[in-house]
Write a structure and sequence with these properties.
This protein has 721 residues and is α+β, with helices and mostly antiparallel strands. Helices cover 49% and strands 17% of the residues. The chain is built from 25 helices and 26 strands.
Length: 721
């Protein structure tokens, strides 16, 4: 679904200009330290206002000040100078996300070389002790060279406080105080930690890039009745394709001919196949199960459902949550502070005690290593990315970490009625005869005859119900409309009318029992059509937009989460009240679009907690924008989908509760990760300062913490609702 950068406005927030960011794909940017280096370097460039790097996506998003353009050549040369590679967007997502075995990557090769040299150094130490520390010095230098190069590149860009710089200082310092063996171990463990971060980032990227493989590479294009195989990417709106049983749909389109069961699980996670026939829409990436379909293309390849989902999720993963931005700010001040403390630990003890300089310097170097904030920096984005990926696989599209974080805090959710809590189209609920004038099946048969060919929603509902009941519908003669009150015509020689109860009151006297029955049905929010012959009622048909099958269960799930649900609708108050009573939900009807937005603002002013709004139409857009979190039904209008912060591709009310549960699970994961990272830091910082643990233990602890929080974040990928 399409997604643009949307600036939400409320009465308290003046409108702002919409700025479209530029996104570059960057290869080799696999960790939080990489992100900060790239951001710090690019922010120094002229005409660059905002920069957001994402190691999860392997991308950098940049915006220029209003009225200015980004210096693309300088941006690319800056990124290249830092040791990363900008991937040509024309090469496609596949090039940026293709899987390379870890042992073929630069970081993988460095680990292998460092590991072999370290093992060789230990072997030489035991075989020829007279060699001294030179084998370890050689192993350290070989592994340290690329680290020093990256530290130097960052320093040139004005960013001295990088993880590579801390590692370089610690390793060179260890060599200077004759701790070459520990220096070699430290360099090797650091390389292993970087490799693991890269593997984790690649796995997160593959979880999303796998979506691109859902759309087939070729399609059977129909031209003059002949099918020929063409590239799916070449399809344009208006063309027609043939989709055979077992094939994936190559495009978004509308069925022109044929009927089949469609497996939509690749797009929305719905396990039960949907029946689709002529005139109905289908999505790219879904699977045609049993019938040959002729489909007219409605969206180009770059704008089909799969492409828009991928773009949406990638943009969402790149948008940092408030907690992630806080961690970034914390790391920005944390690194210089750590260097200052390390200097104090190196200098102060020998001056005020009998501690040797070599011992104090050793502790300071170990302190620098344990203080590397790798685990802390990756703790949040890894969990957020995993949460967004899980949501996308289950048809829950969430536009960014900020939205994901806010969802779990919702206390009240306002829902539209038509198309959200209800199916969005009228359905026949009652068919009744008037005394012995005709039986119910006869009433339905004659009414369906009068409604033949009409596109009015009530007429469509009656015709569909008659077909479902297997009723043989006779032909109507001289059919004509009755000034907006109904239809009339001749069926099998009988003069009949199908009119509203108000119209019936003009000419037909009705019994009190009949009037009471009509009033009772209308009080239930149903629309009535009365079948009349010679000014005498034969029977009636009641129609209503009925609740979705999962509406009640979805609302109960919200209640269990402590979230209050309220229905806001533009429909007449009586119908809204009837649906609200049926679903057991507070409701309010006859609201204009601005009234819905006003209700949301009133709740916000009352301090009732963050408010969510769920809807599917243009009339929901103001309220979707006003709410802290706007959620669009997947079948909604483009305006609703673009204005909303999240979308339910399954069109299930239960998806709202699932989003909230996913948010809460993700934030629990984030808090656990932060606690683990800070806990490890605190424990080993103290033990290092006291001289209990050494340099290699410090690096092992830092690497272990990084691996631990990454694995914990990846655990979210197995989340089940």
């Amino acid at each position: 679904m399409s997604h643009t950068t949307t600036v939400k406005t409320t009465q308290d927030k003046p409108p702002q200009a919409t700025i479209t960011p530029t996104t570059l794909r960057v290869q080799g940017m696999d960790c939080g330290g990489c992100e900060r280096k790239v951001e710090a370097a690019l922010k120094r460039l002229n005409h660059v206002e905002e920069v957001s790097a994402s190691s999860v996506n392997g991308s950098v998003r940049l915006t220029a000040p209003p009225g200015q353009t980004l210096p693309h050549s300088e941006i690319e040369s800056t990124i290249t100078a830092l040791g990363y590679q900008v991937i040509d967007e024309s090469a496609g997502t596949a090039e940026a996300t293709k899987h390379t075995p870890w042992w073929k990557t630069p970081k993988g090769r460095l680990v292998l070389v460092s590991g072999v040299l370290l093992a060789l150094a230990w072997a030489l130490k035991f075989a020829w002790p007279s060699l001294g520390t030179w084998p370890f010095v050689a192993a350290t230098v070989v592994g340290l060279v690329p680290i020093i190069q990256r530290a130097g590149q960052a320093l040139k860009m004005g960013n001295p406080f990088t993880i590579e710089m801390l590692m370089s200082i610690a390793a060179l310092g260890a060599l200077a105080i004759n701790a070459a063996a520990e220096a070699a171990v430290v360099v090797f463990l650091f390389a292993v930690g970087e490799l693991l971060e890269g593997v984790a980032a690649a796995q997160a990227r593959r979880s999303i890039s796998a979506l691109s493989k859902l759309t087939p590479s070729t399609a059977w294009l129909l031209e003059q009745g002949v099918a020929q195989e063409v590239a799916a990417a070449s399809l344009v709106p208006g063309q027609r394709v043939q989709v055979r049983p077992g094939d994936r749909l190559p495009c978004d389109g509308q069925i022109i001919a044929g009927h089949s069961s469609i497996d939509e699980s690749p797009v929305n996670g719905e396990s039960v196949p949907s029946e689709r026939g002529e005139g109905e829409g289908v999505f790219a990436g879904t699977i045609n199960l049993d019938g040959v379909l002729e489909v007219e293309v409605t969206k180009s390849a770059e704008n089909n459902t799969i492409a828009r989902v991928i773009k949406l999720v990638e943009e969402a993963q790149a948008a940092k949550a408030p907690v992630a931005r806080f961690i970034d700010r914390f790391a920005f001040y944390y690194m210089p502070a750590v260097v200052g403390v390390a200097l104090l630990v190196a200098i102060a003890p020998p001056l005020v005690s009998t501690m040797l300089w070599s011992e104090s310097i050793y502790r300071a170097l170990a302190l620098l290593l344990i203080a590397c904030p790798c685990a802390l920096v990756i703790s949040t984005p890894a969990a957020i990315a995993a949460g967004l990926s899980v949501g996308a696989r289950h048809g829950l599209l969430i536009k960014g970490g900020a939205v994901l974080e806010q969802l779990g805090k919702l206390k009240r959710v306002a829902l539209d009625k038509t198309g959200t809590l209800t199916a969005g189209k009228p359905t026949v609920t009652d068919v009744e005869s008037h005394h012995d004038s005709a039986d119910a099946s006869e009433v339905l048969r004659l009414a369906a005859a009068l409604e033949q060919g009409s596109s009015h929603p009530l007429a469509v509902a009656i015709s569909e119900h008659a077909q479902q009941q297997g009723v043989a519908i006779p032909t109507v003669q001289a059919a004509h409309a009755l000034a907006g009150q109904g239809v009339a015509g001749q069926v099998a020689g009988r003069d009949l009318m199908l009119v509203s109860p108000r119209y019936l009151q003009r000419f037909a006297h009705q019994s009190s029992r009949w009037e009471a029955r009509i009033a009772a049905l209308e009080n239930e929010g149903k629309s009535l059509a009365v079948l009349v012959e010679n000014q005498r009622p034969l029977g009636l048909i009641a129609v209503r937009d009925v609740p979705r099958e999962d509406a009640r269960q979805g609302l109960q799930a919200l209640k269990r989460l402590g979230v209050q649900a309220v229905m806001l609708s533009g429909d007449n108050a009586r119908t809204v009240a009837a649906i609200g009573e049926q679903l057991g939900i507070e409701s309010e009807g006859q609201l204009m679009p601005e009234d819905k937005a006003q209700r949301v603002r009133e709740w916000q002013a009352q301090g009732l907690g963050p408010v969510g709004k769920v809807g599917d139409g243009i009339n929901d857009a103001p309220a979707l924008a006003a709410a802290e979190v706007g959620i669009a039904m997947g079948s909604g209008t483009d305006v609703a989908l673009e204005t909303a912060d999240a979308a339910l591709l399954k069109n299930r009310v239960g998806g709202i509760a699932e989003m909230i549960m996913l948010s809460q699970a993700t934030m629990r994961n984030v808090k656990t990760n932060v606690a683990l990272a800070l806990g490890f830091k605190a424990l080993f910082l103290i033990s290092t300062v006291l001289g209990i643990t050494g340099m290699w233990v410090a690096v092992m602890a830092d690497t272990g913490a990084t691996v631990l929080v990454t694995l914990n974040a990846m655990r979210l990928l197995r989340y089940r609702f």
